[in-house]
Amino acid sequence: MDIFAIEIIVFLYGAIVGSFLNVVILRLPEEGASVIFPASHCPQCQTSLSWYENIPVLSYIVLRGRCRTCRTHISIQYPLVELAMGVLAVLLMEKFTLSAAFFIYFAYVAALLVIIVIDLYHQIIPDVISLPGILYGLLASFVLPWVSWQDSLIGLLAGGGTFYLIALCYYLITKRQGMGGGDIKLLAMIGALQGWQALPFVIFCSSLLGSVIGIGAMVVQKKGGQSRIPYGPFLAVASLLYLFFDQQILHYMQLYFGG
């Protein structure tokens, strides 16, 4: 089959999964809510959506971003998540082909995407994603040829341990919580899936992104050091950058530290 046709199929597969991720993002923070039942419906008028209203991206465009029944505005989040998952699926295929690594990291990338959006909205990282993700990463290391189980184990211990120490020191100095437990578990999950080798870049890149955005938030919110922004999205973005560009990142890091 032509490579372009395969990419189209993979993109559609990712977009369809992205449509389900929108349901997870909406319902997971709600205590006791199921991500399976009831079927997709308008949050405003509760009308169940027909199959043609659930076509990723296309339905949003055709409906012009509004519910067909009550005309309530539909959040742009829905097509963006579907597009993002479709694009990420294609990038994964280009890097790993349709191998076991593709499917392992497809689930991982989907989890990161859910974490990004939920943390942005609610400033929480659900344990139901990060804790199983840690075990998932450790088990995946027995399949992935470039991440040994030792790398994975060190990664999850070093990732979680590093942020735990940082959070503890910050609290002892300021008597304020500067980093939530969700961030600690997320970095442990990243270390488990990508090995300890990913941690230096992920910590540096997420800190840099967080600092830049944090300064902007301080200016906009006018709260000074009291400004709060979720850190999970920066960790997730840094993890994705390392996942797709690890060879280039390691190359330039070696040049920098070696030169």
Description:
With 259 residues, the protein is mostly helical. The chain contains 9 helices and no strands. α4 packs antiparallel against α5, α5 runs parallel beside α7 and α7 crosses α9 (232-258).
Low-confidence segments, ≥5 residues, pLDDT <50?
none
Arithmetic mean pLDDT: 89
Using the alpha-carbon principal axes, give the shape.
globular
Query: How large a portion of the residues is in β-strands, by DSSP E?
Result: under 5%
What's the structural domain tally? 2
Main β sheet profile: none
User: What is the SS-derived class?
Assistant: mainly alpha
What fraction, in percent, of the residue positions are helical?
Answer: 55-70%
SSE layout:
Layout: H1 3-27, H2 58-62, H3 77-96, H4 100-122, H5 127-140, H6 149-174, H7 181-194, H8 199-221, H9 232-258
Q: What is shown here, in short?
A:
By secondary structure, this protein is mainly α. 68% of the residues lie in helices and 0% in strands.
For this entry, give a set of tags.
259 residues; 9 helices
